[in-house]
Amino acid sequence: MRHLILAALIAAPACAAPVPQGPPNVPENTPAFAGQTRAEAVTSKTKLAVTEIATGLNKPWGVAIMADGRFLVSEKAAGRLTIVGKDGSKTPITGTPPTDARSQGGMLGVGLPGDGWVYWSYAEPREGGNGTAVARGHLVGTEMRDVQVIYRQMPTLDSVQHFGGRLVFPKDGSLIITLGDRSILPGRVQAQKLDSAIGKIVRVNRDGSIPKDNPFVNATGAKPEIWSYGNRNVQGAALDARGRLWEVEHGPKGGDELNQIQMGRDYGWPTIGYGEEYSGKPINDNTSKAPGMEQPQYYWDPVIGPSGMIFHSGKSMPEYKGNIFVGGLRVQALVRLVMDGDRVTGEEWLLTDRKERIRDVIEGPGGAMYLLTDDTNGKLLRVTAGK
Predict the structure, then answer these.
(1) Does the bond joining 302 to the residue before it have cis omega, within 30 degrees of 0?
(2) How many Cβ atoms are within 10 Å of 89's Cβ, its own excluded?
(3) Which DSSP string corresponds to 287-304?
(4) 382 with 331: CB under 8 angstroms?
(5) Residues forming a β-bridge with 242
(6) Does the pLDDT at position 111 exceed 90?
(7) Does residue 250 carry a catalytic annotation?
């Protein structure tokens, strides 16, 4: 049956061709609405220029711009934060807590919201395993002082994967933390349970306390920090022009998702999704839709490996105003999504000639984009409008 469905999909005429990407892993999973996947391929009119600011970073994962124009970069595999100068110089920061830097662990997200604190997420080694934690501190020279661990994902599990770790700072003074399902069955089965922070997006105040308007703050047995649940492994998140939270999360074999996150909603993992097990076996009979569970705004099958995300302001590159840019690990591209309201209407894979895994993307004050490449010789790149 599957090969008949796949043949029909390939043979069916399309109104507009998508980005070339090969056949889906789960062709029997059809979109919930038109345009939910394989949007029309578009081509930028803006010519891009890429400048290498720094090289030799050890699996860089997150980047933020400091007030003086230098960069704060997390080196995942090294388990450290590093200051990168405008000249490409690299200076490690001391005073941060130990990390479990195995596999997908180590130093993860970084944030500089302008309140005098540096925030970072990391895989925290613990008795019985590890878990995602978030700390903050004051950077004095190259030393982190007054370090406070403000959040710990619980329960502790023994896994080296799916830590999540992106940090988002809404204007209300809260802190959004994306978390993963830990990629093991004991974690996966907790993603839709409210007594666990596994497979969730959470919201806390910046000192780690719980906002009084969180959706489950008065729910018996629920963790009060939960903002959304049923998430698999969220490695990119950003606020749109209206201040709403969006995220990109890794699916299994197929089923990477773009979601507009609303508080208190269930995003379905592992009950529904658009992918299958890495072995090729179905997940819950490959169910992709269920009552009470949110549909992604967009999904990819096969996957792109999304990590890092912005909504571009259009500064210096007006064509990109309101577009989403996502780092593509598997596809080795900067993935551009053209939006019409909340719907994706076009997709483009940029910088594919570089053949580099894009781990993070941020926008600078003038509209330039800054990217990190995922490698033991990782790079910090500046992307601007060329001539």
Answers:
(1) yes
(2) 11
(3) ----TTSPPPSEEESS--
(4) no
(5) none
(6) yes
(7) no
